[in-house]
C-alpha cells in the first residue's frame, strides 16, 4: 500500500535536482532508484513507479537528471562521457541528499546504461541492477531508430511534446541525444566503457521488436555480470516494455527483487 508521494528539490553543487519518492510501509527495505531515458523525466514514468512500489513492497525513488524535467539546466561540460559523469559526479550528491545507503538501480534505455554504470562504480551500495531496453553498443538499428525519431520531432508541433515536460530545456535535450548518438566519435562506444563488470544480481529486460536495438544488447549486458543473471525477452514488444507490457515487467521485477536480502 502506498502511504504517500514526496516531492523534493535536492540542492547540489551542480544545481537543484527534482526527486519524487513513492513511500510504502516498508521503508526499512532497500529502495529502487529509477533512471529515466534520453528524453524522459519523473513525470514520464507515469504510473509505473507506483505499480512497482506496490508489487515489490518497497519505496521507489525517481529523479530528473540535471538538464531534464524540473531539475536545473545541465551545468555544462556535456561530452561522450555523460554516462560515466552521471555515476561519478551527479548521482553521489543526489544519493547523499536522499540519505540512502543502499539502493537497487533500475534504468530505461540510456537510463539502463546509467544504472549499469552506478552498479559498476558503487558496488558497495548498489544491491541489484535492472535494465529495461538498455543499449550495449551502437548498431545500425540504433542509428536508424534515432533518425526516425529525429524526423518525427521535425514535424510541426512535435517539439511541444517535450516542452510540456522539460520547458525551455527541450531543444537542448533533443540535440544532446541526437548529436551524441549519431556522432562519428560515438560510433565505437560500448557499455564496457562505463560498466566493465557487474558484481550485483542483474535482470535485463528487452523487447524483441525494439526499434533502437536487437536482443543482442540484453545478452551483452548479461555477459558483464559475474553473479546471478536473469533476462526477460518480450516477444513483439518495442522500446518501452514497462508501458507496453506493464504487468509482465512489474511481475518479473517483483520476483527478482523478492529474492534479495535487505
TrEMBL record:
This is Alpha/beta hydrolase. Keywords: Hydrolase. It comes from the Bacteria. SUPFAM superfamilies: alpha/beta-Hydrolases (SSF53474). The lineage of its organism: Bacteria, Pseudomonadati, Pseudomonadota, Gammaproteobacteria, Pseudomonadales. One of its GO terms (molecular function) is hydrolase activity. PANTHER family: HYDROLASE, PUTATIVE (AFU_ORTHOLOGUE AFUA_2G14860)-RELATED, MONOACYLGLYCEROL LIPASE. Residues 31-144 form the AB hydrolase-1 domain. One of its GO terms (cellular component) is membrane. InterPro entries: AB_hydrolase_1, AB_hydrolase_fold, AB_hydrolase_sf.
